[in-house]
């Protein structure tokens, strides 16, 4: 007789919960001008324990920081690639996940160096 077993994903021990971590963002702030390095200063806490922090730019994760504990302060610098020579509005999200993978995040609107939008009309005026 052959016995086959199938792997089953088991959640962490204890009761599951559905809320993301409490998050306090100190830096960056809305309206900040960000060069190639971004200072991230954030505190998160969660009763089930934290697993990691993320920094996203326009919806794409640019940095991940694994952590352990029920409360954690992260004060670090993240490299943001300079995409051009003009300061333009940009969206960043600083987030934290708990060990159940519940996510909390804070979005901030900052200014980063980017390329200006291209003119899709070819320099011609649109007639009405």
Write a structural description:
The chain is mostly beta strands and 128 residues long. It has a single domain (22-114), classed as Immunoglobulins (Immunoglobulin-like), CATH 2.60.40.10. It is 0% helix and 50% strand. It is built from no helices and seven strands. It has strands at 22-27, 37-45, 50-57, 60-66, 71-79, 86-98, 103-114. A four-stranded antiparallel beta sheet has the order 4-3-6-7, with no helix packed on it. The chain has a three-stranded antiparallel beta sheet with strand order 1-2-5, with no helix packed on it.
Structural class: mainly beta
Query: Taking all residues together, what is the mean pLDDT?
Result: 87
What is the number of helices? 0
Low-confidence stretches: none
Instruction: Encode the helix/strand succession as letters.
Output: EEEEEEE
C-alpha termini separation = 79 Å
The radius of gyration over CA amounts to: 21 Å
**CATH class (first level) name:** Mainly Beta
């Amino acid at each position: 007789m052959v016995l086959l077993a199938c792997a089953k994903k088991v959640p962490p021990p204890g009761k599951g919960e559905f809320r993301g971590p409490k998050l306090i963002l100190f830096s960056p702030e809305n309206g900040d001008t960000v060069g190639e390095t971004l200072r991230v200063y954030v505190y998160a806490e969660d009763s089930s324990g934290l697993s990691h922090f993320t920094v996203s730019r326009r919806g794409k994760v640019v940095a991940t920081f694994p952590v352990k504990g029920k409360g954690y302060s992260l004060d670090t610098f993240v490299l943001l690639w300079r995409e051009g020579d003009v300061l333009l509005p940009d969206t960043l999200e600083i987030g934290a996940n708990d060990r159940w993978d519940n996510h909390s995040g804070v979005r901030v609107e900052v200014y980063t160096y980017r390329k200006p939008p291209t003119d899709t009309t070819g320099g011609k005026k649109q007639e009405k």
